[in-house]
């Protein structure tokens, strides 16, 4: 999840998160008090369904600020949250020591293919009494761009689930039981030896798939659970109806970095001697266009973005020069001009904030500056492009060329009751898709590993944005 669910404005001005920092605690307290007021009537003690609530999440993988955890616990109590309070952490001594205090129930997380007994024995060491609870049993995994789709065999997933339930009456929460979709720009990212943005799909190889159908794990999981408690024996639901609606003819309607488009789509335009981050521009998601003037002649000078976050298309006087990518250190761009004055433009995409681990505070845009090659460039104009209202996209005639950041639009008509479908984007490169103004999310056909889900609820008009024309 984008930034672990935290709001982007915590990064401008920078607020150190997930610790006792007063600025963070003020923001967290304000949010949690509003949330708890909504949840309080649904506590089990009030006749509602909420029997337990978690404090923080896998905090032992991030920090060891026990006074911070204790302050959160006290906030729950003071707000009338009187259910079981628990922590959720990985299975190492460090994680279980650092990620929880002794006055909440400790629980653990691990995945398919693990041997459950040793992990649950470690939990029992730190939780001498009370229930043994695996709060995240990972029955699959999420995907990053350019990776193969992660799957876990039915036999492996069932074996580990059976091990958990057979160990001293342990309890389990299956993560994920139902797959989902990271609609819009909410996909987030991870850091695992480098920056790795998560794809739009969050199918997770779960017992119920992203599109709502039961997968091969559904009945076997039910059978395993049925060894320990009574479960329904009704047949599994039939697959939901789906349909291929054929090809949609799409036509170019606007070039993103044209003045006519920038006037319509820019949430704000700011000039500054230095480059500002997306958060400093008051923006959470989308793109920022950075423009500055350089003098010529210039002979194949390398454009270096210091701490780019995350991907930039580089233009000189409106002509595409190349792409820079945070995740690809080998990508370089050099520019050359004989003009006395030239406009250097960088269209920077926020591909998702890191949501786990030590690099969580992941401001977006150009965070430190642009060099050519050792000299910093100053005096920038920045166009904030959140792309949060596709109805504002203008429409005019122009000729699209490869590597032009452009908007395309097409329409199709559905007879009868709409059903779910998928967008198949063969020949397209990288971009974002909307249907009836609803942001379905990103696609990156060359990197994979997914198609874009198109739920039936948003059908009528297809609006499609892409970064390069189809070949």
What does this structure look like?
The structure is a single chain. The model is unreliable at 460-471 (pLDDT under 50). The chain has helices at 22-39, 66-78, 93-98, 116-126, 154-166, 218-225, 259-265, and strands at residues 52-54, 84-89, 105-111, 133-138, 171-175, 180-181, 189-191, 195-197, 201-202, 251-255, 268-272, 287-295, 298-309, 311-316, 319-325, 333-337, 341-349, 365-371, 380-385, 406-411, 421-423, 430-435, 438-444, 452-454, 461-466. The protein is of the alpha+beta class. Helix 1 packs parallel to helix 2 and helix 5 packs parallel to helix 6. It is globular. The strands form 7 sheets. Strands 11-19-12-17-14-15 form a 6-stranded antiparallel beta sheet, with no helix packed on it. It has a 5-stranded parallel beta sheet with strand order 1-2-3-4-5, covered by helices on one side. 16% of the residues lie in helices and 30% in strands. The longest helix is centred in the first third of the chain and has 18 residues, at 22-39. It is built from 7 helices and 25 strands.
How many β-strands, per DSSP?
A: 25
The outline comes out as globular
Structural class, from secondary structure content? Answer: alpha+beta
Question: What proportion of the residues is helical, as a percent range?
Answer: 10-25%
Main β-sheet, in a few words?
6 strands, antiparallel
| pLDDT averaged residue by residue | 94
Biggest sheet: strand arrangement: 11-19-12-17-14-15
Low-confidence stretches: 460-471
What is the rounded distance between the termini?
33 Å
The total count of helices amounts to 7
β content, as a range? 25-35%
